[in-house]
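Next up, sample data.

:::
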Amino acid sequence: MAHTPPDAIAMLIADHKKVTSLFHQFETLSDRSKVSKKNLADQICHELSVHMQIEEQIFYPAVRRPVKDNHLMDEAVVEHASAKELMAQITDMDPGDDLYDAKVKVLSEQIAHPVGEEEDDLFPAVRAAKVDLRALGAQMADLKAQLVAATS
């Protein structure tokens, strides 16, 4: 039985849902849950890092021309850069540090904006442009597997 490659957009939406769920889990932890907070925050940063690399290396370049909306993708790249800076700070911190929870909360808010734009504006435009989402999904799944293997 041949494995059907995932739909590129379905993959990205699944990542969005996973990270949103992780942010919600983080928000439910008490100040005494330092180890759990660190583990969750690090997992959030890792998931986002892999997701952003897949978007920047494969998805955005593949859909930029057919969608004809450079503004949306340029904005996403800038938002990614800002989020990466905050992720680096969070990764280097401990949950007991000043502003740790605030930085994770701000990261959550920074991520919510581009996720909404992608799901409401970009993904429908990509579908309308008839991009081969299975072929793109296969490329993205391969890169994701490489990135996950490299960090585990």
In short: Residues 34-67 form the longest helix (34 residues).
